[in-house]
Amino acid sequence: GAVVSQHPSWVICKSGTSVKIECRSLDFQATTMFWYRQFPKQSLMLMATSNEGSKATYEQGVEKDKFLINHASLTLSTLTVTSAHPEDSSFYICSAREGPKLARETQYFGPGTRLLVL
Amino acid sequence: SQQGEEDPQALSIQEGENATMNCSYKTSINNLQWYRQNSGRGLVHLILIRSNEREKHSGRLRVTLDTSKKSSSLLITASRAADTASYFCAIRSNDYKLSFGAGTTVTVRA
Questions:
Q1: Shortest Cα–Cα distance, A72 to chain B (Å)
Q2: What are the tens digits of pLDDT across the range B63-101?
Q3: Would the pLDDT of A68 be above 90?
Q4: Is the pLDDT of residue A100 over 70?
Q5: pLDDT band for position A54 (50/70/90)?
Q6: Taking CB atoms and an 8 Å cutoff, what residues of chain B touch A42?
Q7: Could you report the per-residue pLDDT of A26-49, keeping only the tens digit for each?
Q8: Mean pLDDT score of chain B, rounded to an integer?
Q9: Residue A90 to residues A115, B30, B46, B82: CA-CA distances in angstroms?
């Protein structure tokens, strides 16, 4: 099946710094990528949807200036957590859907990136 | 927003037993999907059932969907220790977004 990778798998940073997380579709072109956040023992919450070459659409309550998303190519999307604070510590998971048909049903998930902000 | 609600929150069974978990939702759906997540790992897609389907099988997995009750169930038969994980239902609504339930944590005792 299709593979989605994320890098790094975990990161520890100091409060106030910015952290970039990469999400790559390895063997397919992903016109749409999704970013989720998961707190311990909780469900995945959709943060934003990004389409290649256009601005990301953020879910209600997610600060777009805080979580910068760039989907510059059909195989790469990045999430940058700017001026990270301890409350941003979480498990960030990306997902990709093979394009271009909007109705494609299966999303492929990356292995996740664990962020710890000290 | 979180669409699905899962029941039970946690389940502990003996190896060889069956495990059943339920998912209820509130809106109309395009399809419903079940995923597995091992501790601290990403999600693995298990099975997808469309809104016009009532039952689907995949190996030891059986999924049912009752759109009149807005509910789905996932049955794992003859469970194994390797089935220990969290299981999430995800609702694919007509805007093509996936919304996840809170998950059921399944522990299979050897």
A1: 21
A2: 999 999 999 999 999 999 999 999 999 998 877 788 898
A3: yes
A4: no
A5: confident
A6: 102-103
A7: 988 888 899 999 988 888 999 999
A8: 92
A9: 5, 30, 24, 26
User: In B, which residues are within 8 Å of A9 by CB distance?
Assistant: none
Residue window 36-75, chain A: list those with CB within 8 Å of chain B.
Answer: 36, 41-46, 49, 59-60
Across the interface, of A46, A59, A109, the residue whose CB is closest to B43 is A109
The SS3 assignment for A100 reads: coil
Instruction: Please tell me whether the peptide bond between A8 and the residue prior to it is cis, using omega within 30 degrees of 0.
Output: yes
